[in-house]
Design a protein that fits this description.
The protein has 633 residues and is an alpha/beta fold. It has 23 helices and 21 strands. It folds into three domains: 180 residues, 3-Layer(aba) Sandwich (Glycerol-3-phosphate (1)-acyltransferase); 148 residues, Rossmann fold (3-Layer(aba) Sandwich); 175 residues, Rossmann fold (3-Layer(aba) Sandwich). Strand 8 and strand 9 form a beta hairpin.
Length: 633
């Protein structure tokens, strides 16, 4: 059959394949979107994908025909550009690492290079899974004397050939898996083989870009670009240089490249790349990896997820991090610097409205911090490719990356923060030390004579079992006010208004600002940041203050500070161990001994100790000596 007829049949088969292979069609369109984004219209991308299918199949079928033709007849079909670069390098006895890619009829390179170059030529190849096709491809490549170096057998032969002034071709545009260098290709991180850089560095060879482009009329154009010297002695940065070469080759004729290859896939489960062998090389990243976190519904829980968010954020340099949160917590997440975008859950519309919101984001992955079935459904219906969360609540089948929670019987109790950090680490986030859970504390001592700003949070939304007594809070306030010049600020939600009124009646209004139920979350954050100390029950406000570096004195009753205590150093927890606790009940059905045993005197001592630490920073050792009788419980 004439070659022209083979090419025409191949194009027709390719177009049929475009229409009949939806999974590959979606992959091609996804890759074109990653590479060209808004620079091409949707119709242009579809036309480019269709033409790619036509050329791919026609070149594969033409390759079979060309392998049966005489070498002279094959060369008549090829127009060669830039051969003078090769001849100059051969004269200088300089080795050449040919940077090749799956462009056009790439198998034709093996047939024409040995006859044109005038030097020994070889190629590094990866064996195909099908032994019959593998044998046929190797025979076709070796027909004109091309030397073959199998990857699994090492690269000693290739290195010797380069040192002798020969040429070694490397198809450098394939996904390199865990052994690759994560570097930018078309602005998106991709695992790239360091082999071309390694060969060039070991042998002193130059990088020689070459490509076989498709031309009309069953013809091809062999383009050899000017040689490129490695820009560094660092293999990683030379790999970045190779990717820039590949990108320039592909842009010459995008329809020729193998878009049906999942070039930008990320490892599973560690797609955050924290454990990659060769690391990530930051570069010209324009296409971000879009990750959305479905946040928890309560303020305290949200604060305890921040270390995990921080660990996730710092792992991938191309990460665009969005948090989807209940509207009441949007102000909190806006204050977290690691978050790029905050979305509030729709107030109406249920799961359908949330799914539509997620679809608009076109996210690459979603991390589910809540354990509910509903949040699993949201990510699954939205069709987000990577869905990560803990097993439970019958939602495992809705996720494609599932982590089993640690059972309470396995080892000693640990802080709830570890629950979320473990989820981050399962995705490849680098481990976070406890000292990194909260930002470095910016402590400034109160100026001489300045009124201390002290906050009180006497409520607890979880239930009465977590609340110390209002009259005892008032007694502590009186004792501290008798010793220091201070301004008290009552904070809490509207449900705590009755508790606040009781404290106001017992303490009086002088030196007291009752802000309970009168501040938004943004206002609460601003108020806490301006305070020197917070006295509180086990509440979300406690976690919020600790996150922003405000010293905390926390009174615990029915809950366990080992699990949910304030994050970071420099805080004091006041708690008495009782036989029935910690019970984690909302209400006490016995004698409330855990809170009854917490006295005004020991809380006063704890608050005094914190104040002395603040004052001591300004007044030096004399101030610390004057407070030596104050001991934290």
């Amino acid at each position: 059959m004439p070659l022209e007829i083979v090419v025409r049949i191949g194009r027709s088969v390719g177009i049929v394949g475009w229409n009949c292979a939806p999974s590959y069609r979606r992959l091609v369109l996804k890759n074109l979107e990653l590479a060209f984004g808004d620079t091409l219209e949707a119709g242009e991308k579809r036309a480019l994908g269709r033409e790619h299918f036509a050329r791919l199949v026609s070149n594969l079928m033409a390759g079979v025909k060309l392998a049966q033709m005489e070498p002279k007849a094959v060369l008549e079909r090829v127009t060669v550009e830039g051969l003078e670069h090769v001849h100059r390098l051969v004269k200088e006895k300089r080795g050449m690492v040919m940077i090749l890619s799956h462009l056009g009829n790439w198998e034709l390179l093996a047939q024409v290079s040995p006859g044109l170059f005038g030097c020994p030529c070889g190629t590094v190849y990866q064996s195909l899974s099908n032994p019959y096709i593998d044998q046929a491809v190797k025979a076709q490549r070796a027909r004109e004397g091309l030397l073959l170096f199998a990857r699994r057998e090492g690269f000693f032969g290739a290195i010797e050939l380069l040192r002798a002034g020969g040429s070694v071709g490397v198809l450098a545009d394939q996904h390199a898996g865990d052994g690759g260098v994560w570097s930018s290709l078309f602005g998106r991180l991709a695992s790239s083989s360091p082999l071309p850089a390694t060969l060039a560095m070991r042998t002193g060879a130059v990088l020689l870009p070459a490509a076989m482009y498709t031309e009309p009329g069953a013809r091809w154009r062999f383009v050899i670009q000017p040689p490129v010297e490695p820009a560094s002695r660092d293999t990683n940065f030379v790999t970045v240089q190779v990717n820039q070469i590949l990108e320039s080759q592909i842009r010459v004729s995008p329809a020729d490249w193998l878009w049906a290859h999942n070039r930008w896939k990320t490892p599973k489960p560690k797609f955050l790349l924290g454990g990659s062998k060769r690391g990530v090389v930051p570069g010209a990243i324009t296409c971000r990896f879009r990750l959305v976190i479905r946040a928890t519904n309560w303020l305290g829980d949200a604060v305890m997820t921040v270390p995990a968010v921080r660990a996730i954020r710092r792992t991938r340099p191309d990460l665009e991090l969005t948090v989807l949160t209940p509207g009441k917590l949007a102000g909190f997440w806006n204050a977290v610097p690691e978050v790029d975008c905050v979305l509030s859950l729709p107030a109406e519309g249920g799961i359908r409205a949330t799914v539509e919101l997620l679809r608009k984001g076109n996210y690459d992955a979603i991390v589910l911090f809540p354990n509910s079935l509903r949040v699993g459904l949201e990510g699954w219906i939205a069709g987000i490719p990577r869905r990560v969360g803990y097993r439970g609540h019958s939602r495992a089948r809705l996720l494609n990356q599932v982590l089993d929670p640690v059972q309470k019987s396995e080892g000693s109790p640990e802080h709830q923060v570890h629950h979320y950090l473990r989820l981050a680490e399962s995705m490849g986030a680098a481990p976070l030390q406890e000292s990194e859970w909260t930002p470095p504390r910016q402590v400034s001592a109160p100026a001489a004579g300045r009124i201390l700003q002290l906050a009180i949070c006497p409520g607890a939304e979880y239930g009465p079992a977590k609340r110390w007594f209002p009259e005892r809070f008032a007694a502590v306030m009186k004792a501290i006010s008798a010793r220091h010049s201070c301004q008290w600020n009552l904070v809490g939600v509207a449900k705590d208004a009755a508790i606040g009124d009781e404290i106001v009646r017992a303490f009086g209004r002088d030196g007291l600002e009752n802000c309970i139920g009168r501040t938004s979350l943004d206002g609460l954050i601003a108020l806490l940041r301006g305070c020197d100390l917070l006295l509180t029950n086990d509440t979300g406000t406690m976690h919020l203050a600790a996150m922003f570096g405000v010293p905390v004195v926390a009174i615990f009753g029915s809950t366990d500070p080992v699990l949910t205590g304030p994050l970071g150093a420099g805080h004091t927890v006041v708690q008495h161990q009782v036989t029935c606790g910690p019970c984690f009940q909302r209400e006490c059905h016995l004698d409330f001994a855990c809170m009854q045993l917490v006295t005004v005197e020991e809380v006063v001592k704890a608050v005094e100790s914190k104040i002395c630490q603040l004052v001591g920073q300004e007044k030096g050792s004399a101030a610390r000596l004057s407070c030596s009788n104050v001991v934290s419980p």
